[in-house]
Specification:
alpha+beta, 18 strands, binds fe (ii) ion, about 35% strand, binds nicotinamide-adenine-dinucleotide, binds FE2/S2 (inorganic) cluster, Aromatic ring-hydroxylating dioxygenase subunit alpha, about 20% helix, iron-sulfur, binds 3,4-dihydroxybenzoic acid
Amino acid sequence: MAFPRNQWYVAAYASEVGDGLLARTICGEPIVFYRTRDGKPVGLADRCVHRRYPLSASSRDGDRIVCGYHGFTYDPDGTCVAVPGQRRVPRTARVPRYTVVEQDSLIWVWIGEDGKADPAAIPRAPWLDSPDYVTVRGMEPLAARYELLVDNLLDLSHETYLHGGYIGTPEVAATPITTEVDEEAGVVYVSRRMKDAECPPFYAKSTGIQGRIDRWQDIEYHPPCLYLLHSRIAPTGVEPGPDGDDPRACHAEIVYAITPETETSTHDFWMVARDFAMDDEEVSRFLADSNRTVVLQDVEALNLLEKVIAAEPEGYQELSINIDTGGLAARRMLQRMTAQ
Ligand SMILES: NC(=O)c1ccc[n+]([C@@H]2O[C@H](COP(=O)([O-])OP(=O)(O)OC[C@H]3O[C@@H](n4cnc5c(N)ncnc54)[C@H](O)[C@@H]3O)[C@@H](O)[C@H]2O)c1
Ligand SMILES: O=C(O)c1ccc(O)c(O)c1
Ligand code: FES
Ligand SMILES: [Fe+2]
């Protein structure tokens, strides 16, 4: 399995992990997630050490999991504490425990050598858990390799062609971008600042801004998993104040977590955090429905592309142009991380 290892990945939304046993494969590794009674998230290898039965198909006994096949019983740290029919528990009876961190309403899991997990290295998405933003979110299964979703999100010119009527307008593909790569921090920045542009329905109906707009798309991609799109929508000509205050603009943090499931499937987590119309339930429903439609338009396109690529002989030569600069920088970073 070729994935960047010794990296943090989003495994679930915090709200998904509770009393139940949640099965999720991350970078080809089957993991079962649950929460102990005192609220701590747990991740264990989802394979019983006895005959590989999935622990996620088993049952809890307090904070322990009792394998549903012959009853091996595991502690939250993966130690087997009881086996059927004998008092002695073999010393090697355990399942691997994953380092799991809950932050910014996300459940992050470390994939790699456990001793190297540093929670301080987890990239931040503070808007998701902030009283100054309201977030709608979802997750769609993608039957395509995660690299295709990285390419897609690093080059938003596709909005003009794939997402007309939602977030796409002619200006997105027509406006030049700037790309910056912070090799030290391992972050790729791509910016597109549209002036006097058409306001797509996704923003016209949610922000209430009428007429032409200035629209900023500032991408900040933290390979491998966290993608942030700082989106600023303002009546055309309105600029942020000198000290950064920007009351006449609307800000949306469009967050994606790109989590590989297998070599050819991906968990596509999507979130829209907004600082406008925060009490308006209808705006929340509208943005959730619209964004899910946008995500499914990408899923359909990338599932098709995955089939094409899977059927291609190795070595197909792609042609890249300026809009691909950010995506190519991201690929180089991911290739270096995978080779480590
Ligand atoms: N931020 C960095 O560390 C960094 C580093 C290198 C390059 N860059 C690039 O340089 C450019 C400037 O980056 P920046 O982050 O300093 O941009 P910035 O501070 O000008 O604003 C960037 C984004 O922040 C949002 N924003 C601005 N004012 C806001 C407000 N009052 N409330 C909420 N959101 C607000 C907007 O959505 C905007 O798209 C961007 O193109 C970025 O991609 C940024
Ligand atoms: O460009 C945008 O504003 C935008 C909004 C929502 C999305 O899901 C997205 O991928 C881009
Ligand atoms: S497979 Fe789990 S106890 Fe036998
Ligand atoms: Fe898209």
